[in-house]
Amino acid sequence: MTGEIEFVWPTIRPVETGAVWRWLAAGWKDLKAAPVAGLFYGAVLAVMGELLLRHASGAIGIALMTGFLLVGPFLALGLYDVSRRLEAGERPRLVPTLAAWRANFPAVSFYAVALTLLLAAWIRISVVVVAVCFPEGQIDWQSPTVWTFAAIYTAVGSGLALFVFATTSLSLPLLLDRRDMDTISAAITSFNALRHNLKPLLGFGALIVVLTAFGFATHGLGLVIAMPLIGHMTWHAYRETLRA
Questions:
Q1: Which of 51, 41, 84 is nearest to 227 (CA)?
Q2: Residue 78, SS3?
Q3: Apex CA 142: angle with CA 139 and CA 143, to 5°?
Q4: Domain residue spans of the chain
Q5: Cα separation, 143 vs 128, whole angstroms
Q6: Is 92:86 a contact under the CB 8 Å cutoff?
């Protein structure tokens, strides 16, 4: 007997397609219950989004804007902690949520490194796609070639986004909830959850894209509400889809 606790994989629950609207309602309820923390994170992310809109240009700029969705799950870690505390009947305070990553530091750190590498890869891919379509290195939105560029960029970006969403959509809340969970196991669990609940989780992903696009379309103002709402929704999607 070694005294070691046997690792148990989370159980995947089936959820119906309309569950996404229940998660949206639960996320809005959490935002109203802890507005200070939610709006703080929303404001920080809105400032980041506005800076990208104002100061980023060319291939790297568009890569950073679209890559915002890749790193979003990590930036929302504190929001998952808010929802977790509300669920436990606690009164969440902002300051403790800023250190939520300490709950599972090794796995969360590895996750952050992986997302950073994915974002770097996406920036490089974006530069290559732009260079192939526009040899001068700048996107000419008036050129007929822009439609070819848009098709290639959307296809490549959607493929990468789907991979990231499949492996990360539920993994960070899981890492926060279970300290014995490692990054790879969490990614596998998230992928399997998507595979078994394809329609509701893809619908959830589509709603995230719509809310984020709305945030950028309003020059970042919409992100103040959209980002905390997405974070709280993600926690409820995790709790309903997985039994940790």
A1: 41
A2: helix
A3: 75
A4: 13-243
A5: 18
A6: yes
Sign of CA dihedral 47, 49, 54, 57: positive
pLDDT in tens, the chain (244 residues): 455 567 789 999 999 989 999 999 999 999 999 999 999 988 888 887 777 666 565 666 677 666 666 676 777 888 999 999 999 999 888 888 888 888 888 888 888 888 888 888 888 888 888 888 888 777 777 888 888 888 988 888 888 888 888 888 899 899 988 888 899 999 999 999 999 999 999 999 999 889 988 887 887 788 899 989 999 999 999 999 998 7
DSSP-assigned states of every residue in 1-69: ---PPPP-PPEEPP--TTHHHHHHHHHHHHHHHSHHHHHHHHHHHHHHHHHHHHH--HHHHHHHHHHHH
The string over 150-163, giving b where at least 16 C-beta atoms fall within 10 Å of a residue's C-beta and e elsewhere, is eeebeeebeebbee
Amino acid 197 reads N
Dihedral Cα 75, 77, 79, 84, nearest 10 deg: 170
